[in-house]
Every structure is written in structure tokens, then in C-alpha cells.
TrEMBL record:
InterPro entries reported for this sequence: Beta-barrel_TonB (IPR000531), Beta-barrel_TonB_sf (IPR036942), Plug_dom (IPR012910), TonB-dep_rcpt-like (IPR039426), TonB_box_CS (IPR010916)
Organism phylogeny: Bacteria, Pseudomonadati, Pseudomonadota, Betaproteobacteria, Burkholderiales
Keyword Iron: yes
Signal peptide: 1-25
Gene3D superfamilies per UniProt: TonB-dependent receptor, beta-barrel domain
Gene source species: Duganella rivi
Motif (TonB box): 34-40
Keyword line: Cell outer membrane, Ion transport, Iron, Iron transport, Membrane, Receptor, Signal, TonB box, Transmembrane, Transmembrane beta strand, Transport
Protein name per Swiss-Prot or TrEMBL: TonB-dependent receptor
Length: 724
């Protein structure tokens, strides 16, 4: 039973706000367009899907991405979702309903799966592929293991690229320029090549100047810049109505600053900025840079055989090179305390192959089904190096290699008990195995074995029901289980290779979805409760700067998610959403290493903090979003003003709790004023992101001083977008 405070009840009452409801009811038009999602691997109306899901597309995405943001733009923009990274624009970590993984090591696994064009992006580096020319982004909350597999106990973030078509030559281009000479160029073109072939070419170019001074080296404007480009080429082959093939080749290249770790950023005994803090300055003796090259290709084949459809999805993803280097204490002789070591890490080679065959029924009757098999193979080599800050000479190296092979068989059945009541059941069997070994080590001691092999078999299932109260309102209930395979972490600081056993989740949720006022508004509400057994947690940092994996006997989570959007008037559209997520670690035997200089608030036993009863790291209890768009029709076009705001409550950076390493609540807003004409074909706009210049510490390094890193600064810019 979920107990709600007065605040939570007010959040759930958003859909019943009388002024909004009354105004919408008095409006004759327009209507919201139907949102189609593929949460169950079929195209369905979002209202009919028994899953808590949010879709972002079109203008919503364009607004959020206009200033050159990377994939972390999704953080807090939909209920129950957080995204963060201690590596800057690379290696993002996702959290849904407070459930995620803070591990930053090369082969860290996450309970949130990222799927791009039906291909799982398993390694954290692959999850950061830029978002451009996409048809939409779906955020699926709760276990999705039956149909998606590959470590989805928390949920799935699903991207779908805009596809080629045989109809006509068309496309778009978008160019924005903003603060710190930030430029963002995005373009795509669809080109029919014949009656059977079409091509779509998409590209992204992003740049930001360095704007942070290093006061130790006396270098002005030397850090925080980046250059990024990504490309995607797709070919569609459609010789007839019963067969089509879609081929996709893509690549990414990024260079620039790594995350800036700012020494002595936090005031002792608080989570405030230290006196004299300046966003545009840092004093560090360490080198700071990163570069990344990735590439991939996939082929999606579809056969319509009459009674069934057959799908084949073949995917390859590769990392040619990834290198990131920074100063983990963020200090210098001019900014003590200082630890005279810099760290670097990366991937010298990573290859991922996947293959899925799936058969989907096309029955006109009440019973339909889909079934398939899945294969996954990953092989990669990663390293962690140390350097002397004074001489810049390398002092140690630890290089590891991992092979991961998995296969699965899955199926689901949907049965229409009546025209209003539908039942669905799914089952998936997975075998997952990993072999991990140290291939090179010098300058650091390793205890224990040099190699580890693990494997696990597991069956997941889900059961759901959807009931249509009427043509506009439906309810659902769902019980689902999930599974994350065992994880392995490399040795570090005299800590041996560690293994976290497989984790499992059982989740129960229920919800209601409705189209309101003749589809001039829509709303949804979901409540959930989950228990995770053997959750994989990562102990990082502490005075010994160790990284190791542990399992928590149990973690509990519960919460509420609500969304509403609609037209207040034909020219005034508003959307509101929010979530309450409560998480708790339940294991009296678990302890974690703590910081050397911070104020720990957990019980300390033999120098370690008891983490029993703590929330999960990076789990915001509250997330709220609001946006409003007003349109003034003119003779030749439309003038508009749009504002969007997102709020998240405080977060804990680590497994233990302390006064310093607790991120304050954060509110960020955006503003966009523009004009579009020729039926929306062209648009010019001025925009601002983080317009209140909110400054927050969003992560930390707890090694030997109060080191942290900060959110993105305020940005203003202009954008022009055109279509053809």
C-alpha cells in the first residue's frame, strides 16, 4: 500500500485542475494527435499499452536539443528518469524509478537498457550516441525483460531514427548558435533512388569553445570545449508489399574536455559551494581531455507471409578508440590538498554483435502472439592508467579483457477476452556468460586470481491486463519480473577482481490512461511497487580510492507517476508531469568505505558506513516538469512563446550519506521565442537554457578532498530551421 502525503495528492490532482479542465471543455478544437509507441514491439496507441511509457518527439525534442546538448538532456525531462555521467559527454548512466548503477568502469552493466533502432547498446560508451534526426524517444518504465531482454529490470530508453521512404525528396536543416560560441548543425535528406530503393542521410555537427580558465597553469579559456560529429546513412529496399529491408550505417567522433573535477568545491559541513567559487575558473595541475570514435551498422529485414510476419535484426556496434584523462582530486599545489596522481581510462577495442529472429502473428481473431530467439556477443579490452602530476609520466597500467555471450528465447501471447478486456502474458529464457581476465598490469599490485568466469540461466515473465472503461479511458495492471546478469569489475588498489551475482526484480504496477474533452487533452497515472533481490551496487572512492562490486540482499522501491497535456485554448497548450520515487536499501550487513574529509551521517563501524536504510544513489524522490506554449497566428505565419521547466529533489551521490555529497534540489528552465511560416516549413527562434543560471553540484569524487562537478551553465542562442 502506497501512502501519499498531501504534496503527493496535489501532484496526482493535476489532471483535475478546474481552470485547465474548464477552458479545455469550452474549446471546439484542435485535438491532440494520437501517440503511437512500440513498447510491445508492435505499433500501438499509447493509451492501449499496459506499461508506464512516455514519448518525446518533434518540437519537444527540438527545444531540448537546440543548444547542442548530449544525451543527458533527458535527465528529469520525463517522470522517474535521471541521466548523469562523471565522464562528461561520454559514458552516460541511466536511472528509472531510482533504479540504476553508478559504476563508471569499462564493462559496467546498467539495469536500464538503451535500444537504438532495435539494437541494444550494451556498453556505457555506446549509450551516449547523439540524438539527431529521430522519429521519437520512448521511455518505458518498469521491467521489460520479456520482449527486450539484455538487462532491462529498471526499464528501457528506446530511440527510433527517422526512416527513408520511397515517396519524394525531402529533408530539413537546422543551425543554432549560442553562448561560448556553441554551434549545433543538424541536417537530413530523404532521396528516392528508384521505385524500390530510397536513401536517408543524416548528420550532426556540434562545437563549443573552451571557456574555463586554469588558474594554476595561467591558461585562459583552456577547458570545457568540445567538437562532436555523427553521421547516419540508411537504405530502404522495398521491391513489393511483402518484403522490405532497412540498412543502417552510423558513426560518431568526439574530442574535447573530459569532466572537470573541481577540488575543494564544497564547503565543509554543508553541500554549498565553497566561498569564492567561480564557474569559469579551476585550479588543477592535471591534463584534461578525451576522444572517442565509434561505428556501427544494422540490417532489419521484414517478410509479410500472410498469416505471420517474420523479422530479422542484425546489429554490429564498435568502439575503435576511447580515451579520457583527468585529475581526480581536482587540485594543484595552489589548491591543496592535492594528490599528485592523474588518472586515465578507456577502451582500445570493443565489438558487439547481435542477432534477433522474431515471428509475429496477424490473426483477425482474439488470439495473437509473437515469439523469437536472440543472440548477443561482446568482446572488449579496457584500461586504467595513472600518471604523475609533476612529470606527466605514466606510473601504472591495468588492462583487462572481457567476453560476454548471451542467448535467449522469448514469446508473448495476447488474448482479447472481450472487446474491452485484453490479457497479455510473456516469457523469456536467458543464458548469459562472461569471462574476464587481466591482460597487463604494472605499477599496481593485484591480489587474487587474474581471471574470472561466470554464467547464469534465468526465466523472466510478465502478466498484464488492460480494460477499456469506455472509448476514451483505459486501465491496466501489470506484474513483471526482470533479470540482470552477473557483473565483473577489474582489480583496483589492492582489491581483487570482484563479481556481483545476478539481480532479479519483481514489479507490480497499475495505471489509468485517458483522452479527455474530445481528445483536446490526455492524462495518465500509474502507481508501482518493486523489490530487487541481490541488487548489484558499486562501491567507489573512499580514502583508499577503491572500486568494487557488492550485492544488496534487497532493495525496495515504490512510487507514483502522472502526466497531463492539453489545449487550454486553440493557441495555448500546457503539459504537466511528475513522479514520486522512494527507494531503500535493505541489508544490515552492507558497509561502504567513506570519504576522508566529509561529514558522514550514517553509523560508522570500523571506519565503514552502514548503508542499510539509505536511498539508492542518484535517486531523486521528486521529479516535476511543466511546459507551456502560446501561439499568435499572423497573416503569413505564427509567432510563439514556449517555456519549459524541470525540477528534481535532492540526490545522494554515493551509497553512504554525508552532508557534503548530497546534491541540492535543482530547478532549471528554458525559454523559446520564435516565428514560423510557410506552413511551419521554416522557423527562426531565440532560445535560452537554464535561464535562471541555476548552479548546482551534481556529482563528487570523495577521495581526498571535497571535489565535485557542476551542471551546465546558462546558455542563450538563436536557431534557424528549414525544410524541403
Amino acid at each position: 500500500m502506497i501512502k501519499l502525503s498531501k504534496m503527493h495528492k496535489r501532484v496526482l490532482a493535476l489532471g483535475a485542475v478546474l481552470p485547465l479542465g474548464t477552458a479545455i471543455a469550452q474549446t471546439a478544437e484542435p485535438q491532440l494527435e494520437t501517440v503511437t509507441v512500440t513498447a510491445q514491439r508492435r505499433a500501438e496507441n499509447i493509451k492501449d499499452v499496459p506499461v508506464s511509457v512516455t514519448m518525446l518527439k518533434d518540437e519537444k525534442l527540438d527545444v531540448l536539443l537546440s543548444g547542442g546538448q548530449d544525451i543527458r538532456f533527458l535527465a528529469g525531462k520525463v517522470p522517474s528518469l535521471n541521466v548523469e555521467s562523471s565522464n562528461g559527454r561520454t559514458f552516460p548512466r541511466f536511472y528509472i524509478r531510482g533504479y540504476g548503477n553508478t559504476d563508471f568502469s569499462t564493462f559496467a552493466s546498467q539495469p536500464v537498457s538503451l535500444v537504438y533502432d532495435d539494437v541494444v547498446q550494451e556498453n556505457g560508451i555506446l549509450k551516449g550516441f547523439p540524438v539527431f534526426d529521430v522519429a521519437g524517444v520512448e521511455v518505458l518504465r518498469g521491467p521489460q525483460g520479456t520482449l527486450f531482454g539484455r538487462n532491462t529490470p529498471a526499464g528501457v530508453v528506446k530511440f527510433e531514427s527517422a526512416k527513408p521512404n520511397l515517396d519524394k525528396v525531402e529533408g530539413y536543416y537546422s543551425l543554432s548558435w549560442g553562448s561560448h560560441n556553441t554551434t549545433n548543425l543538424e541536417a537530413a535528406a530523404n532521396i528516392p533512388l528508384s521505385s524500390e530503393w530510397a536513401m536517408r542521410v543524416s548528420t550532426l555537427r556540434q562545437h563549443r569553445d573552451d571557456f574555463v580558465d586554469n588558474t594554476y597553469t595561467k591558461q585562459a579559456d583552456s577547458l570545457e570545449g568540445y567538437n562532436e560529429h555523427a553521421e547516419r546513412v540508411q537504405f530502404l529496399y522495398k521491391p513489393n508489399a511483402s518484403f522490405n529491408a532497412l540498412f543502417n550505417v552510423h558513426a560518431r567522433s568526439t574530442d574535447g574536455s573530459a569532466r572537470l573535477f573541481r577540488g575543494n568545491l564544497i564547503k565543509k559541513g554543508t553541500n554549498d559551494f565553497a566561498d569564492g567559487y567561480d564557474f569559469t575558473k579551476i585550479s588543477t595541475d592535471g591534463l584534461n581531455f578525451q576522444n572517442l570514435r565509434t561505428n556501427g551498422a544494422n540490417a532489419r529485414l521484414t517478410w509479410d507471409l500472410g498469416a505471420v510476419k517474420l523479422f530479422s535484426i542484425t546489429g554490429y556496434e564498435g568502439v575503435d578508440n576511447y580515451y579520457t584523462r583527468g585529475d581526480i582530486d581536482g587540485g594543484s599545489p595552489a589548491n591543496p590538498p592535492r594528490f599528485p596522481v592523474q588518472t586515465a581510462g578507456g577502451i582500445t577495442d570493443l565489438k558487439q554483435y547481435s542477432q534477433e529472429f522474431r515471428v509475429e502473428s496477424k490473426n483477425a481473431g482474439p488470439l495473437n502472439w509473437q515469439t523469437g530467439v536472440y543472440y548477443f556477443k561482446e568482446s572488449g579490452t579496457g584500461f586504467s592508467d595513472n600518471f604523475d602530476s609533476t612529470t606527466q609520466a605514466q606510473t601504472s597500467d591495468l588492462t583487462s579483457h572481457q567476453n560476454n555471450t548471451a542467448y535467449a528465447a522469448f514469446g508473448s501471447v495476447t488474448y482479447d477476452v472481450s472487446s474491452d478486456f485484453t490479457l497479455r502474458a510473456g516469457l523469456r529464457y536467458t543464458h548469459d556468460e562472461k569471462d574476464f581476465r587481466t591482460v597487463n598490469i604494472w605499477g599496481v599490485s593485484q591480489t587474487g586470481p587474474k581471471s574470472v568466469d561466470v554464467s547464469k540461466n534465468k526465466a523472466n515473465w510478465d502478466l498484464s491486463g488492460t480494460y477499456k472503461i469506455n472509448k476514451d479511458v483505459s486501465t491496466y495492471a501489470r506484474v513483471a519480473t526482470g533479470f540482470r546478469a552477473p557483473s565483473i569489475a577489474a582489480a583496483s588498489a589492492s582489491v581483487p577482481i570482484t563479481v556481483a551475482d545476478a539481480e532479479t526484480i519483481t514489479s507490480v504496477e497499475a495505471g489509468i490512461k485517458a483522452d479527455l474533452f474530445n481528445r483536446r487533452a490526455r492524462a495518465s497515472l500509474s502507481v508501482y511497487n518493486y523489490d530487487v533481490k541481490n541488487q548489484q551496487l558499486t562501491v567507489v572512492g573512499g580514502t583508499s580510492n577503491v572500486t568494487k562490486l557488492i550485492n544488496a540482499a534487497k532493495t525496495a522501491g515504490r512510487g507514483v507517476e502522472a502526466e497531463i497535456e492539453g489545449f487550454v485554448t486553440p493557441d495555448f497548450k500546457v503539459s504537466l508531469s511528475g513522479s514520486y520515487n522512494f527507494t531503500e536499501i535493505k541489508d544490515p550487513s552492507l558497509y561502504a568505505a567513506v570519504c576522508g574529509t566529509c561529514t558522514v551521517t550514517d553509523p560508522i563501524v570500523n571506519g565503514l558506513a552502514s548503508i542499510n536504510g539509505n536511498p539508492l544513489p542518484q535517486a531523486a524522490k521528486y521529479i516535476f516538469n511543466a511546459s507551456a506554449r502560446y501561439n499568435w497566428p499572423l497573416a503569413d505565419g505564427n509567432l510563439f512563446v514556449l517555456t519549459d521547466w524541470s525540477y528534481r529533489s535532492k540526490i545522494n551521490f554515493f551509497l553512504y550519506e554525508s552532508k557534503e555529497f548530497t546534491g541540492k534540489e535543482m530547478l532549471e528552465g528554458g525559454l523559446r521565442v520564435g516565428y514560423n511560416w510557410d506552413g511551419g516549413k521554416y522557423e527562426v527562434a531565440a532560445f535560452g537554457r537554464n535561464i535562471t543560471n541555476t548552479r548546482r553540484i551534481i556529482g563528487g569524487i570523495d577521495f581526498n578532498n571535497l571535489t565535485g562537478f557542476v551542471n551546465e551553465p546558462r546558455q542563450f542562442g538563436v536557431q534557424f530551421r528549414g525544410g524541403f
